[in-house]
Amino acid sequence: MEAKKYFESMTELFGVVPRQEHYACMIDLLSRAGKINEATELVNTMPFQANTSVWGALLGAARIHKNVELGQCAAEMLLVLEPEKSGTHVLLANICTSAGMWGNVAKMRKLMKDGQVKKEPGMSWIEVRDQVHTFIVGDRSHSRSDEVYAKFDELFNLLYKAGYVPMVEMDLHDVEQGEKQRLLRYHSEKLTVAFALIATRPGAPIRVKKNLRVRVDCHTALKFICKIVSREIIVRDVNRFHHFKDGSCSCGDYW
C-alpha cells in the first residue's frame, strides 16, 4: 500500500515524528481499503489517545463494510468524546439497519423519540447572484417554494424511472411509513439542488453546502440527479467535499 510506505518513510527517511493527524489519515486510508485489522492495530499501538477523527474514520469504515462490532465500539468511544452529537447515533443505526439488527434500531429510535438524543436539523444552502438561499427538510418558507417542489417532484419521477429506490428503512423518525417517505423525499440538499436547477443557467455547476453529513439516501439520489440533468453537483458537508458527475461521486461512496 503506497500510503503506508509514505507514512513509514516519515520517520525512517526524514526523521519526522507522525502527529495525531497523520495517524488519523493513515487509519482512514486503511479503513477505506478494507484493512480493518491493520487500522484497529494502528489505533491500539499509536502513541496517542484516539480522537474523534480516528473513531469517526472507523465508524465510517464499519458502515461501508457492514462491521457491526467495529461500529458499536467506535460509536461508544465517539459518544464518550462527543455525547451531544446525534450523527453518531444515526450512523450506528444505519449500520444496524444494514445488518438487520432491528432491536438496536428500535432502541435508537426510542432514544430520539424520548428526547435523550437531540437530532440537529439538516440544513443546506446555496449562493446565487450574491444571495444565500437556505433550505431545511420539508421547508416551504422560500419565496419560490412552489417552483422548487414542483421541480423536485418532476425530478423524483425521473429518478424512479432511472432505478432509484428511497431508503426509507434508514430513517429514524418515529412516524408512519408515508410520512417517512415524505420527509426523505424532501431532504434539504435535494430541495437546494432543485432550486439551483431553476435559478442558475443550464449546464452550470451546482455548489451546495450542508451543516451535517450527507445521508446515504441523498448521496444515492444526487448520483442519479447529476446524470439525469447533466450537471456537476458539488456538496460540501460537515466531513468533506462530494463531487457528483456522470452518475458517480468523487468519494467513491466512502464518507
From TrEMBL:
> What positions does the domain DYW occupy?
163-255
Please give the biological process terms from Gene Ontology that the record holds.
RNA modification
In the record, what terms sit under GO molecular function? RNA binding; zinc ion binding
**According to its UniProt record, what is one Pfam family this protein matches?**
E_motif
InterPro entries, alphabetized: DYW_dom, E2_motif, E_motif, PPR_At4g14850-like_plant, TPR-like_helical_dom_sf
Q: Which residues form a coiled coil?
A: none
Similarity annotation = Belongs to the PPR family. PCMP-H subfamily.
Q: What is this protein called?
A: DYW domain-containing protein
Q: Which organism is it from?
A: Malus domestica
